[in-house]
């Protein structure tokens, strides 16, 4: 291996299986909890850490807003008003606060804050299916074929593996409506880094009055005391086993038990997940709907010190089929976009504005992306079922299909220079004609923001072979942090 390259190996790799079994036994008293299992896996798979800055409020973070199914670039950030009628669609472009930047009329709130974000219009790859496209964008897997599960870890898990801090009360990677699957296909995951590198998942609708994240910040003092006593008793019973603890598993168990207990009893954790602590005016600003409150929770978590957050905008607010996959058989593409755009426009712009208003824009990078764009040429097919954004079954309606050749992404915060357009597609939106970039460049950009040396960092795969976290990719120079 070339000089200067960092290889993060797991020193206890050969002992990991036995340790995991041992720790499962030790977890008996926590069988009803979700967090200790995560900490257990982290303890079992922990390896060498990179030379990163010490934990401080200045550590950089990323919030990924994921549009599962693939949003139409033509109806969001790359309108084509001069294209023929079978391409351009019914919506007009609108001017923004940034000279020369036009976006879809569906996003009027975006137009008012364009000085706070940059649009990349020239991301391109070869993954034409949802799984393949997601795996290329999130993990850099260059295969064009769809896979049932990833072979490479996604960038969120890589960053968590390299940056997590066992002293933190909160997990360092949290998915608020986490990116996990597309139908039966797993589109993200830690793969050979082990489950401990994956996200702590928050499911449900945060806008509902009865929403609650389970096992966080117990308010019942009696329950807290019972858990503490149970740990103390088991430690006494396990004492005699410490003489046989050749692998240090007991110490690891103590560590994740402590983390789990801290999370259960931590006021900080309880407050971070509690949206009711926000003024109603702030909640209304984001929107009292699922996407708005997901984005608000993402802001609260990043402010509380969580460094990797994903939030997937899917479900009922998308329309009939619950995602952005606007084939004509699924949705009337333009009716579906018209329905979901106000929720999207409000939630995303509130998040971006809040990041700036609260002074988080220097360290927190917000990214809005999906696995690909949509076909510039409009297609027509009979609907397979009626519902929001779709005519009754058999109705001929317009759609846009998968299009990995061209897509747009939005970047905000992160100390980047904003008010930019990076790259361009042709007059129909079919492919880049300027500054084409691929998934490897996107990943390198994220790692660079997080302070990870993507060019020299290797991680061991299932066979122990050192595997680069980025291959032939370079951080997008236009998105480099500004010099203070």
**What is the strand arrangement across the widest sheet?**
9-6-10-2-11-16-5-17
Quick one: how many beta strands?
Answer: 21
Supply the CATH architecture of the largest domain: 3-Layer(aba) Sandwich
- Please name the CATH topology of the largest domain: Alkaline Phosphatase, subunit A
Q: What's the CATH superfamily of the largest domain, by name?
A: Alkaline Phosphatase, subunit A
CATH class membership of the largest domain: Alpha Beta
**End-to-end distance, in Å?**
35 Å
Share of residues in strands: 15-25%
Based on CA inertia axes, which overall geometry fits?
Answer: globular
| Helix/sheet category | alpha/beta
Low-confidence segments, given as residue ranges, are 10-34, 45-57, 235-253
Radius of gyration equals 23 Å
Share of helix, binned? 25-40%
How many helical elements? 13
The description of the largest β-sheet is: 8 strands, mixed
Q: How many discrete structural domains?
A: 2
Average the pLDDT over all residues and give the rounded result: 86
Describe this structure in words.
There is one protein chain. By secondary structure, this protein is α/β, with parallel strands linked by helices. The protein folds into 2 domains: 1-48 and 218-265, no CATH class; 59-215 and 277-479, Alkaline Phosphatase, subunit A (3-Layer(aba) Sandwich). The protein has 13 helices and 21 strands. It has helices at 16-26, 35-45, 85-88, 108-112, 130-139, 155-163, 221-238, 249-265, 267-273, 280-286, 290-303, 333-357, 439-449; strands at residues 6-7, 61-66, 93-95, 102-104, 117-123, 173-176, 181-182, 185-186, 200-202, 308-312, 364-369, 373-374, 379-382, 396-399, 402-403, 407-413, 421-422, 424-425, 432-434, 457-460, 466-468. The strands form 7 sheets. The chain has an 8-stranded mixed beta sheet with strand order 9-6-10-2-11-16-5-17, with helices on both faces. A 3-stranded mixed beta sheet has the order 1-20-21, with no helix packed on it. Strands 3-4 form a two-stranded antiparallel ribbon. Helix 1 packs antiparallel against helix 2 (35-45), helix 1 (16-26) crosses helix 8 (249-265) and helix 10 crosses helix 11 (290-303).
């Amino acid at each position: 291996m070339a000089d200067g390259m960092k290889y993060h190996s797991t020193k206890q790799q050969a002992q990991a299986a036995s340790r995991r079994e041992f720790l499962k036994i030790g977890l008996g008293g926590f069988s009803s909890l979700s967090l200790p299992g995560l900490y257990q896996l982290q303890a079992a798979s922990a390896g060498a850490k990179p030379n990163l800055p010490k934990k401080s409020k200045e550590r950089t973070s990323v919030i990924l807003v994921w549009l599962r199914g693939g949003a139409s670039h033509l109806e969001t950030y790359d309108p084509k008003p001069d294209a023929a009628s079978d391409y351009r669609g019914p919506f007009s472009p609108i001017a923004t606060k940034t000279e020369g930047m036009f976006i879809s009329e569906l996003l009027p709130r975006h137009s008012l804050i364009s000085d706070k974000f940059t649009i990349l219009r020239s991301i391109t790859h070869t993954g034409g299916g949802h799984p393949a496209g997601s795996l290329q964008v999130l993990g850099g897997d260059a295969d064009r074929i769809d896979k049932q599960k990833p072979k490479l870890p996604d960038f969120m898990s890589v960053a968590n593996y390299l940056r997590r801090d066992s002293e933190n009360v909160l997990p360092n990677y949290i998915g608020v409506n986490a990116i996990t699957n597309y139908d039966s296909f797993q589109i993200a995951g830690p793969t050979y880094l082990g489950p401990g590198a994956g996200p702590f998942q928050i499911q449900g609708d945060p806008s509902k009055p009865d929403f609650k994240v389970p096992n966080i910040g117990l308010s019942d003092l009696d329950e807290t005391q019972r858990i503490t006593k149970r740990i103390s008793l088991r430690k006494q019973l396990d004492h005699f086993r410490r003489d046989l603890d050749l692998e240090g598993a007991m110490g690891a168990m103590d560590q994740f038990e402590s983390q789990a207990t801290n999370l259960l009893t931590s006021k900080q954790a309880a407050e971070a997940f509690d949206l009711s602590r926000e003024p109603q005016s702030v909640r209304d600003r984001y929107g009292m709907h699922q996407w708005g409150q997901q984005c608000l929770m993402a802001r609260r978590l990043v402010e509380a010190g969580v460094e990797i957050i994903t939030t997937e905008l899917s479900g009922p607010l998308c329309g009939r089929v619950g995602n952005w996959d606007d084939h004509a058989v699924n949705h009337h593409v333009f009716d579906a976009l018209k329905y979901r755009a106000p929720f999207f426009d409000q939630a995303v712009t509130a998040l971006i504005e809040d990041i700036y208003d609260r002074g988080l824009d220097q360290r927190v990078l917000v990214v809005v992306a999906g696995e690909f764009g949509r076909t510039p040429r409009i297609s027509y097919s009979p609907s397979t079922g009626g519902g929001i954004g779709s005519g009754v079954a058999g109705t001929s309606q317009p759609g846009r299909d998968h299009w990995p050749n061209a897509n747009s992404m939005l970047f905000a915060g992160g100390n980047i220079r904003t008010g930019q357009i990076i790259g361009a597609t042709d007059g129909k939106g079919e492919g880049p004609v300027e500054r084409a970039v691929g998934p490897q460049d996107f990943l390198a950009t994220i790692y660079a923001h997080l302070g990870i040396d993507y060019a020299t960092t290797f991680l061991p795969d299932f066979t122990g072979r050192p595997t680069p976290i980025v291959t032939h990719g370079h951080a997008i120079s236009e998105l480099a942090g500004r010099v203070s």
